Amino acid sequence: MLKILRYLRKKDLGLIFISLLFIATQVWLDLKMPDYMSEITRLVQTEGSEMGEIMSAGGKMLLCAFGSLIAAMIVGFMVAKVAASLSMRLREKVYDKTMSFSMEEINGFSTASLITRSTNDITQIQMCVAIGLQAIIKAPIMAVWAVVKIAGKGWEWTAATGGAVIVLILMLGSVIALAMPKFKSIQKLTDSLNRVARENLTGLRVVRAYHAEDYQEARFEKANDDLTKNHLFTSRTMAFMQPGMQLIMSGLGLAIYWIGTYLIDGAAGPDKLTLFSDMVVFSQYAMQVVLAFMLLTMTFIILPRVIVSAKRINEVLDTKTKIHDGKVTDSELYEQGEVEFRHVSFQYPDAEEYILHDISFTAHKGETVAFIGSTGSGKSTLINLVPRFYDATEGEVIVDGINVKNYTQEALHNKLGYVPQKAVMFNGTVTSNVTYGENGRAPAEKDDIIEAVSVAQAEEFVMKMDGTYDAKIAQGGTNVSGGQKQRLAIARAICRRPEIYVFDDSFSALDYKTDRILRKKLKETTNGATSLIVAQRIGTIMDADKIIVLDEGRVVGQGTHRELLKNCPVYLEIAESQLTKEEIANA
Ligand SMILES: Nc1ncnc2c1ncn2[C@@H]1O[C@H](COP(=O)(O)OP(=O)(O)OP(=O)(O)O)[C@@H](O)[C@H]1O
User: Fold this and answer.
1) CB 492 within 8 A of CB 434
2) Which of 13, 209, 219, 401 has the fewest CB atoms inside 10 Å of its own CB, making it the most exposed?
């Protein structure tokens, strides 16, 4: 928790200091009131007292109460400001850190947990700072001051107050010990609930189509039940606190008056009045002492849950991303657009086996290099090493003569036009999706957008959309078809004018004719850019300059379509399953 507080700015620390002064003023005013009360008691009991004197003491008491109220309001305002600005900064930091994570760290935390950490956990911290800060500052000042005030006013009363404090601490200690483990698991259970809810919502179509509502509901209910039970347990345990504390305070009040009656009874005539006045004042101060301890313990009740939240936020902030930026911001050394794999092997983090084994090939500037192989043979894994979604476990991935690890990620990504297997659309328009991101050059002009959309064979449907290039695209592209989404994703890559295109099975959602025209147009307009294409269909890659055949993460063939048909049995097998005998014979 203390680690989190290092994100407080100097201005916040200043506000906390001013709050401290106001809290001290508030406590002083609160503790001043019993003095006036004692004076009023004395005046009322003393014969010949003036009404004006009583009114004056009462007026001062009212002023103290009003001043205490104003001070409390100012403190509340300042502390809320500190809490809100700290949580804003934490959200910013967590967001920035998450954005810098590689796939390894994101998968390690899980998306659901990262969302809970940057929302719910930070809210816990905000609440704790807003409530706890006041209590942590106020309670010790109040306790010490009140103890000083009651010291020497009668050991019997002091002993009763001490006893009440011990009972209070014992009671609160037991409650905390019972509730603490449950508090700790609340955040984890919230993660689970988030994960199940996300899964249900994102997979809604499949859930409905497979009539799996009951199954999903059962999973949701379990997560919901677990969280509810946890909340109920903690709330029930906490429910004992309020009446328990009330009982202790009332009991203490009673004890003080009971002791008082004995003391007054045994005192000589003139001392009776002094003792009575002391008793009234003491009971007020004793309440303040109990209240101070109560405040402190309340803070300890909020703390366990907040400590868990703070730990979870620190985990994110302290995680060192495995993908580090290199120093190279540009490369003029080699041909622009050359990609080379040198004896690359790859193992997913936490996986037991290697997925890629000793892969070596070179894609020269302007060449189209395609990857084909059965499902799970490692094609996507291989090309994901180029944009550094993961780093090669062994060997080197080299772009324009420099290991990808030596580039700054910005410089590396500026060279690439990546189209993922599953097209991703962002909430916005056709234009905002096509011109998405930056590539270190001037922003795309209208003509560039039109050309990219046209090459990607998206023009026809974009022109039919309401608003054409300004037509709305919903989050996730839910208002366009799978093929349309894929074409817009391809247009986005073209619009970047990269040196190297990376297509991860990006043509599979297109029909054969569109696939062929798109690749032809792409070749005409890409101006010597290199293309790395993962494909399932031989038709998509037949005319590639080089085809690399993968089988269980190993290169089992490398060459042109014609060469591979002759000397690569795996390729021939794929070709026979997709092409006619004549097509194979005429290759
Ligand atoms: N994040 C991951 N963690 C662990 N293993 C993974 C991960 N992603 C993929 N794999 C494993 O790596 C292997 C290769 O997957 P990859 O997606 O590269 O295959 P692919 O050839 O592109 O398949 P497809 O043609 O079906 O897309 C698979 O066996 C898969 O189980």
Assistant:
1) yes
2) 209
Which residue, 283, 287, 281, is CA-closest to 256?
A: 283
Task: Specify the CATH number for the domain of residue 115.
Answer: 1.20.1560.10
Residue 323 inside a domain? The answer is no
Inside any domain, residue 325: no
Rounded distance from Cα 196 to ligand 1 centre (Å): 24
Are 281 and 373 members of one domain? Answer: no
Ligand 1 centre distance from Cα of residue 376 (Å):
5
How many domains does the chain fold into? 2
Q: What three-state secondary structure class fits 360? A: strand
pLDDT per residue as tens digits for the range 395-411: 999 999 899 999 998 89
Q: Which residue of 101, 104, 348 sits with most ligand 1 atoms within 8 Å of its CB, as the best mutation to test the pocket? A: 348
Domain limits for position 425: 339-585
Residue nearest to atom 28 of ligand 1 (CA): 376
- Residue closest via CA to ligand 1's atom 13 equals 376
Same domain for 367 and 257, yes or no, is: no
Ligand 1 neighbours (beta carbon < 6 A): 107, 348, 351, 355, 373, 375-381, 505
Q: What is the 3-state secondary structure (H, E, C) of 493-552?
A: HHHCCCCEEEEECCCCCCCHHHHHHHHHHHHHHCCCCEEEEECCCHHHHCCCCEEEEEEC
Residue nearest to atom 31 of ligand 1 (CA): 376
Check: pTM over 0.80? Answer yes or no.
Answer: no
Whether the complex's predicted ipTM surpasses the cut of 0.90 = yes
Query: What burial letters (b/e) apply to 195-213, b meaning 16+ CB within 10 Å?
Result: bbbeebeeeeeebeeeeee
Q: Rounded to whole angstroms, how far apart are CA atoms 295 and 298?
A: 5
Q: What is the CATH number for 377? A: 3.40.50.300
On whether both 360 and 230 belong to a single domain, the answer is no
Ligand 1 centroid to 48 CA: how many Å?
Answer: 96
> Are residues 535 and 403 located together in one domain of the fold?
yes
Distance 50 CA to ligand 1 centre (A): 93
Closest CA to 179 of 232, 215, 118, 249: 232
One domain, residues 268 and 360: no
User: Hey, which of 107, 354, 381, 382 would you mutate to test ligand 1's pocket, going by the most ligand atoms within 8 Å of its Cβ?
Assistant: 381
